[in-house]
Design goal:
The complex is a heterotrimer of chains A (155), B (649) and C (571).
Chain A lengths: L1 H8 L9 H12 L4 H11 L3 H10 L11 E6 L2 H5 L2 H12 L12 E6 L11 E3 L2 E3 L7 H14 L1
Parallel strand pairs in A: 1-2
Antiparallel strand pairs in A: 1-3, 3-4
Helix pairs in contact in A: 1-2, 2-3
Chain B lengths: L3 H15 L8 H10 L8 E5 L2 H6 L1 H15 L4 E5 L11 E4 L5 E4 L4 H12 L8 E5 L17 H4 L17 H6 L4 H9 L2 H11 L11 H9 L7 E6 L8 H8 L1 H15 L3 E6 L4 H16 L15 E6 L9 H8 L23 E5 H13 L1 H5 L9 E8 L5 E6 L4 H8 L9 E6 L5 E3 L10 H6 L8 E6 L4 H15 L5 H17 L8 H24 L3 H5 L2 H9 L1 H10 L13 E3 L9 H5 L5 E2 L7 E2 L9 H5 L5 E3 L1
Parallel strand pairs in B: 1-2, 6-7, 6-9, 7-8, 10-14
Antiparallel strand pairs in B: 1-3, 3-4, 4-5, 10-11, 12-13, 12-14, 15-18, 16-17
Helix pairs in contact in B: 4-5, 8-12, 8-15, 9-10, 9-12, 11-13, 12-15, 19-20, 20-21, 23-24
Chain C lengths: L1 E6 L2 E6 L4 H7 L23 E4 L6 E2 L10 E3 L3 H16 L15 H8 L16 E2 L5 E4 L8 H9 L6 E3 L6 E3 L16 H5 L5 E3 L3 H8 L5 E6 L3 H9 L7 H12 L3 E4 H22 L5 E2 L4 H10 L13 H12 L9 E7 L3 H5 L6 E2 L2 E2 L3 E4 H10 L21 H5 L5 H13 L7 H8 L4 E8 L2 E9 L4 H9 L6 E5 L17 H17 L9 H13 L1 H4 L16
Parallel strand pairs in C: 1-5, 11-12, 11-14, 13-20, 14-17, 19-20
Antiparallel strand pairs in C: 1-2, 3-4, 3-5, 6-7, 7-10, 8-9, 15-16, 18-19
Helix pairs in contact in C: 7-13, 9-11, 9-15
The chains are: A alpha+beta (155), B alpha/beta (649), C alpha/beta (571).
The structure holds flavin mononucleotide (FMN), iron/sulfur cluster (8 copies) and FE2/S2 (inorganic) cluster (3 copies).
Chain lengths: 155, 649, 571
């Protein structure tokens, strides 16, 4: 609550055009947009939560459940597709048993699809934190996830 | 970093360079600038490209290794991180300049190779496998037997104007930018020209919008300038929606100050005192570069209040978009900035009369704005010397896919696509056959061998029904299935449709479903299914034409393009999928049949243990077999079998 | 400025600044539309209204494009017809095709378009939208699979109702319409006004039906069934049934309801008269006490919920009097059982209002778990009931309603328009003061169409200043006025623009003009009817003089009052 108030403090009350930056800031801080946050923003901007939620769900970047401890960003850009990203995405989907935007039950993993990350030549590219995994193949996925699980357990 | 010394430097650059009244600077000033440009370095300089492509390829680790190397060896040298050089296949790229000598460009210097490479340079024992070329100018000693960078195919056919600074300077350094002439054309502009005159000059240069539409930039500015209002806005569209394009991103990373200068001039031209850079989300590197650059520009007083005493005020802010393709569209973009769902709105009114917060607004693409400082510095006539009769200047592309050399390229308008594919890219990787060049991303088309001689030219392309697009250019070889590729785009577009209008929202959905149906696995199929598939394609053509005809915004209007283009160029591939249930590229999972060759199989059980759906049965050390009904065609068994016993048809 | 444009190779006159659609409509050409709403700025979402304009690459939406002098238009060329038909087919391709089971069967814009476009074959196959039905609200049902995302409901809820309870959620293929956090309706700020239902072109939004409940009750032997209807219902029913309304229609309805199986038929208007009487008392007593405390009418349940959600601070200003429906219901449940088992009396109320369905469920509207009103029906449901039971309302003998609530004054009917209740109270004050005619000018002001209006009337040397909020868009102004110290003796807020004549349970009027037409009918009837105020109504006299005195529960009139409290919903 406090953190949200701090973030709101950087903006002008009632300024609807700040909505997206506010949502971005809050998500950067909390990892997702809670109902609580949305209600607070609504009061601050004098905006209906209906509108805030309607807006937030329009954009891919906003999530309404917390991220996993390890969050993967998988390139779904064209070149990565040509290089076989779809099989990789399927392998991740099958391995984790969740869809993009969801979080595993144990809270360890979540993933999202992005458009080109600018590393086409290295595709398919997976980004985890500051690390990039390049030329990923579907058969690499089980091993990668096992490795990342260790990382998640440490967090 | 901003200590005494840099304050002195700042004063020098602002007072003696930027504010200096004439174009020609005093010799002493020039000399100092030349030092800042490192024109004649007295110590070795290692330039390491550090755009996104390089970073993903590991350039940061390499840079750290290089730093360590210099320290350990006790070499007094300089490491400069530059924007991407262009050829992404070469990343991480090192180029090393020893005092008095030409620069040496090395490819793929990953962390593990740093030591060997630098050892080679400093001990004159070149590892020639990674050495690409040398680059230099008069006054430097050339290396013997090493080709010049201008002569290697990737660069030979390019004309680098927008990219001229790339790989040479530190994009984080406003000092270097100013030392290279930066911000002086902006200063010249506000001092010497009225708003109208700037619009006029840019119109005369023939510059057209690089986002694909090719609208004459100067004219657009005039519309906004002539809309009566107390306030106007300039928006730099750095959304880069195309999922396979990274031009804008590279430009932002490689030369942020040039973009800022372009924005400054454009804002002045239309009388805007506020500008917004609408930046693609999830781009941490471009964001930080741009933010630092803006901070520096503010510190130097080239943006802000009463810029260098000219009376002109300009504030530039960055707004990160929130992840929706359609927000690249102008009205959706504006809506999004105003805090709304990014749904396109009816035009007219156009943004130039009724844009952001109801004020006249100009929206320009990154590349468009990158050209502006040069036009102001070198004059419209200079710009007109490049290109064709109606398309002037150069065009950036992010060349990707199966070409041998891929990366960010810049060609003069009028260059043929054959030059790009066969020259710059030097053909196809692994000796495969060229199939098509995809231009313009999910709203674009395919260029096949028969029209590879078309030129990069707005009008020439339009005549052929081809959209220039914003810079995505993807080389496809025979390993790509056209049906599958079109399905990928349709899936993307359907996800990205804002959902407002029926033809686009439902049309993309139906097209996607029909395409999915074509490549679906033919489980227990009755004869009717083939007919349905065929009827599906018949409907596709009607849906496509109605979408083009009636959709509200460019997204829906162009969404059918890849399909229409693929169907007309690769009809036989569609027919094979539909009637023969065969995918010649062996891509479509659903149409692949895997089987195990009993003669080769040793019964090692590996495949059975890896198959995700347990479709493989057998007894240890006996030949295994695949139950076709269960198999999902993933191909893992084929990849893991050490005895090449698994075959695919 | 007028000029001519060429349409289908003939010249027609067009007005500068008007849309192509308006020019075409005035010249006898009909273009199908789907997302358009009169009096709203066009969004251009549906693309149904496309026409061909020479010189334009693509088709142009007639609802939004303005006419220009050079235009040459084709409105029904093969290209245009193909486009429109394909759009309808696209909509149908993933539509549930539930027409036979659908609330809007035979009255659905999509169905009509599909017929008009001669869709006779399913050429485009799509995977069906997954059915999702939100029945959580006592008033409004959402059937998401039938929604064509025209956005009309969203705009009405935001721009007219100002509750902003629904919006588009998600994007592209996942887009749907719903309340905040994609919750069900009962958690939302929806005030049940039903304005969205009126504009929905399909069966995606409709009132919650209670007809089967009514049927069940009608088939029981041990229950006394009582029905009451609001003053406007007979007129609205005639409209819904497509028969001509005449002065005896109310009495035909009484007969019809009895035929359907109701033992007793009462007029909610009698309750309205009681409300007017009580309200008048309150106004006068406040006036006498000189506290300057404004009294806000609470007769519109949608407004009450709105106030509980958005302006809990002013709740103390609300009159605690119940709505006419509930006052009538309280009387019925007290009187009809005659000391017997209340639960054996089943009460139905027919209203032009969807919010009343919600209101009847409020805690304070029940006694020991037994509701004063068991079921609320809209006019549309009533029509269905009459049709179901095979009653030819044009061909039966008129009958009076039941005592003690068989009559109503014309003031009660007047209260179905926005401002009518205020006018009725002022008339009562005048009547009691022995005056003759109210100030015509001031009355005209009260009846004018703007969302916020105020007037001051002098009666018996005393000034009464009143404010009327006609549609919730006027609340903002009201709050401004209150904030800046304006004082009123009486404030009326009606959620539906125009009042209950435009209620969510009515036949959709389609335009402001049609609503005004209904108000004009009310004003005319008011002029023509003999009993114009509760003071002259025999039923009011009977109730006050006999019924209330004899009935213990009613004697202190406490049952006519309720209470309000801040409401916690996602705003
Ligand atoms: C669906 C859609 C997506 C677009 N995406 C982009 C984009 O990512 N970047 C861009 O510069 N322009 C994009 N545009 C074009 C812009 O709306 C606008 O025309 C452009 O920024 C104008 O710049 P220019 O005149 O400099 O070319 C898009 C248009 C549409 C219809
Ligand atoms: S064409 Fe597509 S993206 Fe554009 S407004 Fe229509 S639905 Fe939205
Ligand atoms: S292709 Fe995949 S699913 Fe089929 S048998 Fe091989 S491993 Fe199993
Ligand atoms: S992996 Fe190859 S050799 Fe081993 S069981 Fe499978 S098919 Fe046979
Ligand atoms: S909404 Fe209309 S088209 Fe859809 S099922 Fe109901 S009546 Fe049929
Ligand atoms: S309209 Fe046709 S489909 Fe519907 S009930 Fe009648 S016959 Fe059956
Ligand atoms: S009933 Fe009224 S408040 Fe509720 S969603 Fe519909 S229009 Fe909005
Ligand atoms: S619910 Fe009805 S009015 Fe609302 S968008 Fe859907 S179809 Fe349109
Ligand atoms: S104005 Fe009338 S119909 Fe509308 S909500 Fe209020 S009481 Fe109901
Ligand atoms: S497409 Fe994946 S990094 Fe470019
Ligand atoms: S064409 Fe589909 S995979 Fe071949
Ligand atoms: S009625 Fe014109 S676009 Fe919907």
């Amino acid at each position: 609550m406090k953190k949200i108030e701090d973030i709101l403090g950087h903006y002008r009350a009632g300024s609807h055009e700040s909505l997206i930056p506010i949502l971005q800031d809050i998500q950067a801080e909390e990892g997702y947009l809670s109902e609580n946050a949305i209600v607070q923003i609504g009061r601050f901007l004098e905006m209906s939560t209906t509108k805030i939620y309607g807006l937030a769900t329009f954009y891919d970047r906003f999530r309404f459940i917390p991220c996993g401890k390890v969050h993967l960003r998988i390139c779904d850009g064209t070149t990565c597709f040509i290089n076989g990203s779809e099989a990789v995405i399927n392998a991740i989907r099958e391995n984790l048993g969740i869809e993009p935007g969801q979080t595993t039950r144990d809270g360890k993993f979540s993933y999202e699809l992005t458009s080109c990350m600018g590393g086409c030549n290295e595709g398919p590219v997976i980004n985890v934190g500051d690390n990039y995994h390049n030329h990923v193949k579907p058969e690499d996925i089980p091993e990668l996830i096992t490795k990342l699980k260790v990382l998640a357990d440490l967090k | 970093m901003k200590g005494e010394k840099s304050n002195e430097l700042m004063t020098f650059l602002v007072e003696e360079v930027l504010r200096y009244g004439s174009d020609t600077l005093p010799a002493a000033t020039e000399k100092r600038l030349s030092e800042i440009r490192r024109e004649k370095p007295s110590v070795p300089v290692i330039y390491i490209s550090s755009g996104s492509a390089a970073i993903i390829a590991g350039s940061e680790k390499s840079a750290e290794a290089a730093d360590l190397y210099l320290k350990e060896m006790g070499i007094n040298g300089l490491i400069v991180r530059t924007g991407g050089h262009g050829p992404a296949v070469f990343e991480p790229i090192f180029s090393v300049q020893l005092p008095g000598k030409n620069r040496l460009v090395f490819r793929n210097i990953t962390e593990d190779k740093v030591e060997a490479t630098l050892n080679g340079v400093f001990h004159n024992d070149m590892p020639d496998e990674d050495l690409v070329a040398q680059s230099g100018s008069t006054g430097f000693e050339a290396w013997h037997g090493i080709p010049f960078i201008e002569d290697i195919p990737f660069f030979k056919f390019q004309k680098r104007v927008v990219l001229e600074n790339f790989g040479f300077y530190d994009p984080e350094s406003i000092e270097e930018y100013i030392a290279r002439g930066g911000y002086r054309s902006f200063l010249k502009t506000i001092r010497n020209y009225t708003h109208e005159e700037v619009c006029d000059i840019v119109e005369r240069s023939g510059l057209r919008g690089r986002s694909g539409g090719g609208f004459t930039t100067g004219l657009k500015w005039k519309y906004a300038l002539n809309s009566a209002s107390d306030n106007r806005y300039l928006i730099c569209n750095a959304k880069e929606s195309d999922p396979g394009s990274y031009c804008d991103r590279s430009v932002l990373e490689g030369d942020p100050h040039r973009l800022i200068e372009g924005i400054c001039i454009a804002s002045y031209a239309i009388g805007a005192s506020n500008a917004v850079i609408f930046l693609k989300t999830g781009s941490p590197h471009p964001y930080t570069r741009l933010k630092n650059a803006l901070d520096a520009a503010r510190e130097y007083g080239v943006i802000g209040h009463n810029i260098l005493s000219s009376g002109f005020n300009l504030d530039i802010i960055i707004r990160e978009e929130a992840g929706a393709f359609v927000c690249g569209e102008e009205t959706a973009l504006i809506g999004s900035l105003e805090g709304k769902r990014g749904m396109p709105e009816l035009k007219p009114p156009y943004p130039t009369s009724d844009g952001l917060y109801g004020k006249p607004t100009v929206i320009n693409n990154v590349e468009t704005l990158m050209n502006v400082p040069l036009i102001m510095a070198r004059g419209p006539e200079w710009f007109r010397t490049m290109g064709t009769s109606n398309s002037k200047g150069t065009k950036l592309f992010s060349l990707g896919g199966r070409g041998r050399y891929t990366g960010l390229i810049e060609v003069e308008m009028g260059t043929t696509f054959r030059t790009i594919v066969e020259g710059i890219s030097d053909g196809i990787r692994d000796g495969r056959a060229f199939k098509a060049l995809q231009i313009g991303g999910p709203s674009g088309t395919f260029i096949t061998d028969k029209n590879l001689d078309l030129t990069v030219d707005f009008d020439a392309l339009k005549e052929q029904g081809i959209a220039m697009g914003s810079g995505g250019l993807i080389i496809i070889d025979e390993t790509t299935c056209m049906v599958d590729f079109v399905r990928f785009y349709m899936d993307f577009i359907h996800k990205e449709s804002c959902g407002k209008c029926i033809p686009c929202r439902e049309g993309t959905g139906r097209m996607l479903e029909i395409l999915e149906n074509i490549i679906r696995k033919p489980h227990n199929e009755d004869s009717n299914a083939t007919l349905e598939r065929f009827k599906g394609v018949m409907q596709l053509e009607v849906i496509a034409s109605v979408m083009k005809d009636t959709s509200l915004c460019g997204l829906g209007q162009t969404a059918p393009n890849p399909f229409i283009s693929a169907l007309s160029n690769f009809r036989e591939e569609f027919e094979e999928h539909i009637f023969d249930r065969r995918c010649r590229a062996n891509v479509c999972r659903g149409l692949r049949t895997f089987s195990i060759d009993v003669d080769k199989c040793t019964g090692c059980t590996i495949c059975a243990s890896k198959c995700p759906v347990n479709a493989i049965y057998g007894t240890r050390l006996q030949p295994f077999f695949i139950v076709d009904d269960k198999c999902i065609g993933c191909g893992i068994c084929k990849d893991v079998c050490k005895f090449s016993a698994v075959t695919v048809r | 400025m007028q000029f001519t444009i060429e349409v289908n190779n003939k010249s027609i006159k067009a007005e500068k600044g008007e849309t192509i659609l308006s020019a075409l409509n005035r010249n006898g050409i009909i273009i199908p539309t789907l997302c358009r709403m009169q009096e709203f700025t066009p969004t251009g979402a549906c693309r149904m209204c496309v026409v061909e304009v020479e010189g334009r690459d693509r088709l142009v939406t007639a609802c939004s494009a303005l006419v220009e002098e050079w235009m040459k238009i084709q409105t029904h060329s093969p290209r245009v017809i193909r486009a429109r038909k394909t759009i309808v087919e696209l909509l149908l391709s993933n539509h549930p095709d539930d027409c036979l089971y659908c609330d809007r069967n035979l009255d659905c814009e999509l169905q009509k378009l599909s017929d008009q476009m001669q869709v006779r074959e399913r050429r485009i196959h799509g995977s069906k939208i997954k059915p999702r039905r939100d029945q959580s609200s006592p008033s409004i049902v959402r059937e998401l699979s039938k929604c064509i995302l025209c956005g009309r409901c969203i705009r009405v809820c935001e721009e007219v109702v100002t509750a902003t309870s629904i919006d588009f959620i998600n994007r592209g293929r996942a887009t749907h319409v719903g309340p905040a956090m994609d919750r069900d309706f009962n958690f939302s700020s929806c005030i049940h006004c039903g304005q969205c239902v009126l504009v929905c072109p399909t069966g995606a939004l409709h009132e919650k039906h209670y007809l089967s409940e009514v049927q069940e009750q009608l088939s029981k032997n041990d229950v006394t069934r009582v029905i009451q209807y609001s003053p406007l219902v007979p007129y609205a029913l005639a409209e819904e049934l497509g028969v001509k309304y005449h002065r005896d229609f109310d009495r035909l309805l009484n007969a019809a309801l009895r035929k359907a199986g109701f033992e007793k038929v009462f007029l909610s208007g009698a309750g309205t008269d009681i409300l007017i009487t009580e309200l008048t008392d309150e106004v006068l007593s406040v006036k006498r006490a000189k506290t300057n405390k404004p009294l806000i009418i609470s007769a519109c349940p949608a407004w009450v919920k709105y106030c509980e959600q958005f302006f809990p601070d002013i709740l103390p200003m609300l009159s605690t009097l119940k709505t006419p429906q509930q006052i009538t219901g309280a009387i019925i449940k007290s009187v009809v059982p005659a000391g017997g088992d209340k639960s054996r009396v089943y009460t139905v109320s027919v209203t032009p209002c969807t919010a009343m369905k919600f209101e009847a469920r409020r805690d304070s509207m029940t006694r020991k778990g037994i509701s004063d009103i068991d079921t609320v029906l809209t006019v549309r449901e009533l029509a269905r009931l009459i049709i179901l039971y095979g009653i030819d309302i044009t061909n039966i003998d008129p009958e009076p309603a039941d005592e003690p609530m068989s009559l109503r004054s014309s003031s009660a009917l007047l209260a179905e328009t926005a401002g009518g209740m205020t006018e009725a109270v002022l008339r009562s004050i005048l009547n009691r003061a022995g005056g003759k005619e109210n100030d015509k000018q001031a009355i005209k002001k009260l009846r004018a169409g703007s969302p916020f209006r105020e007037a001051t009337l002098a009666i018996g040397g005393i000034d009464y200043s009143v404010a009327i909020v006609d549609g919730l868009k006027g609340v903002e102004k009201l709050m401004q006025m209150l904030g800046s110290g304006a004082s009123y003796d009486l404030i009326e807020v009606m959620a539906c623009p125009g009042g209950c004549v435009n209620g969510g349970g009515m036949v959709p009027a389609g335009s402001r003009e049609a609503v005004r037409q209904r108000s004009r009918f009310v004003f005319q009837s008011d002029e023509q009817e003999a009993v114009r105020g509760p003071e002259h109504s025999a039923s009011v006299a009977e109730l006050n003089d006999k019924v209330f005195k004899q009935c213990e529960e009613l004697s202190d009139k406490k049952l006519f009052h309720t209470h309000f409290a801040k409401r916690d919903v996602l705003l």
